[in-house]
Design a protein that fits this description.
Elements: H1 7-13, H2 18-46, H3 48-68, H4 72-89, H5 92-103, H6 110-135, H7 140-146, H8 148-158, H9 175-188, H10 190-211, H11 213-219, H12 227-243, H13 245-274, H14 284-303, H15 311-339, H16 342-362
Helix pairs in contact: 2-3, 2-4, 2-15, 3-4, 3-5, 3-7, 3-8, 5-15, 6-12, 6-14, 9-10, 10-14, 10-15, 10-16, 12-14, 13-14, 13-16, 15-16
Amino acid sequence: MLILPIFIIFYQENGLNLSQIGFLATIISVIGLVLEVPSGVFADLYGKKLSIILGSLIIVLGYLLRAMSASFINFIIAIGILSVGKSLISGADSAFLYDSLKEIKKEYLFKKISGTANFLLLIGMGLGAFLGGLLSLYGLRTVHYLVIIPLTLAFAISLTFKEPKDHKKVIKSNYLEHLKEGIIFSFNHKTVRTLILFSGFMIGMMLVSHIFFQPYMRYIGIDTSHFGLFYLIFLGISAFFSKEAYKIEEKLGEKKSMIMIPIILALQLFFMWKFSFYWAFLFLFLGEFVWGFTKPIIGHYINQHVESHHRATILSIDAMSYQVIWAIFSPLIGFFADTWTLQTALLIQAGIVAFVAVAILSSWKLRKS
């Protein structure tokens, strides 16, 4: 992800304001909402491997178009293509891992291996961000073209995957019936429903906050050419806590783990509102802990309650939930930042995170059904 430390700046240099950038996030979310669950059903019915391969190829094409774009409309088209590719992978990747472990009767290792996989992902993103920050001296568009190389490699790697034999076929082959069963299960199972609502809101709000990282770093006086180094540090922290997430969760337990997530995220946003000096970038580390910890842990909780033949569908519904939050709050918080100040927008977001988290967690006793 060479473009990670400069893609918001790239949009701004091509004439987009924060409201328009927030709207691009909404485009991603809306397409995700439309395709997220159908793509999960596709993966359940026709194979998680096929879904991942197609998604990887489409993502390469989407990033290529984005590198060539220089207008708001072209960015919308590129983002639309990217969203299709990401929807095909979302849910299918986690389901593929869990079913592979289940085939060898080691699904209990999902929490640990998912955290390790996320660790490697974040380390790769961090190193890529560091390199991308250095390469930005040769032009932001150049970096966007270079990112095609690792994405093409990822597509090639996906071709080597092996579909778990015992979980390749599902009980129902009718698309609509399979979709209906997955949706009914998600809404009727109290624990799964609460986990989806909670993870959707927390991950969605983390995605929203990431939009403001680069403007915030500029605001506190960090040079754009140093963004890559800071992202390397951020993602390194996130990677560490992702790898150690299963150990932390085992010590804290489910209840304390879930309560801790919104508290830390709200504190990060509050501190970003309160402080504007150079060393305030340290507060961004709080969000990176949450980003590394949340996905493998909540994913483990959900997988414990879901059967293999519906796994990709349910996980896609979970991914769809944070697409909803992202779609709603990205342009809204961006509007607050453009209308008032970035600090005001961050304070409002901190309040929303705290209020909604209390509402969700207080309606559930944090115990498995």
